[in-house]
Amino acid sequence: MTGRERLCHNERNALWTGCMLLDEAAINNRLQQLGTSWARQGSSLLYRGRFGNFLEAMRFANAITPLAEEQGHHPDLDIGWGRCNVHLTTHDAGGLTEKDFTLAKAIDRIR
Question: Torsions phi, psi of 46, nearest 5?
């Protein structure tokens, strides 16, 4: 195991295979494959969702819930009137991993 690899577990304590930190080239490549609302913010991905009102923002947040549960990877959500910002990072690995981009792609499909 290299210094960039760490064991990552979900809440069921099962080993998740996508927990190797991605290098800069891999991060940039995967960012280009996401929708334009995603940006890198340090060791996280940030999605700035804008909506017509609070209810639409909450619907979006609620649509993320089953995706996050299914993948065992839970984003930080910042919800307010007309906005739902999504922050993704793999805390166990200390940065961005394939888990983050997999969930980001799933979130893109619901928007």
Answer: -125, 130
Give CA separation, 108 vs 2, 3, 6, 35, 48, in Å: 32, 31, 27, 6, 12
Contacts of 63 (CB under 8 A, 6+ apart): 110
Cα separation, 9 vs 16, in Å, equals: 6
CA distances from 102 to 49, 51, 73, 106 (A): 18, 23, 10, 6
Dist. CA 89–CA 92, nearest whole Å: 9
Reported as a single tens digit per residue, the pLDDT across 87-110 is 999 999 999 999 999 999 999 999
pTM of the model: 0.83
Does residue 92 come out as left (phi exceeding 0), alpha (psi in the -120 to 50 range) or beta?
Answer: alpha
Q: Which helix (H) or strand (E) holds 100?
A: helix 98-110
Q: If one looks up domain 24-110 in CATH, what number appears?
A: 3.30.1360.20
